[in-house]
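Sequence in, structure out. Go.
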Amino acid sequence: MQLHIENMTCGGCARSVTATIKEVDADATVEIDLPAKRVRIESAQPAGRFTQALDEAGFPAQQTP
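Output:
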């Protein structure tokens, strides 16, 4: 799945986003594209679990195709 996170603007943000995703699924594969403000996640967990956790962490995310 891919998520767009508009307010992910720096390396610190990317680290926080990655940590939040890993809290939901420690085995998830996370790839950050900071210039595009995109994160790709490989996980068996549903996208909603990640978007909810990211929203609670202050990084509202939208799923993209």
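Check: The domain at 2-64 is CATH 3.30.70.100 (Alpha-Beta Plaits). The chain has a mean pLDDT of 97.
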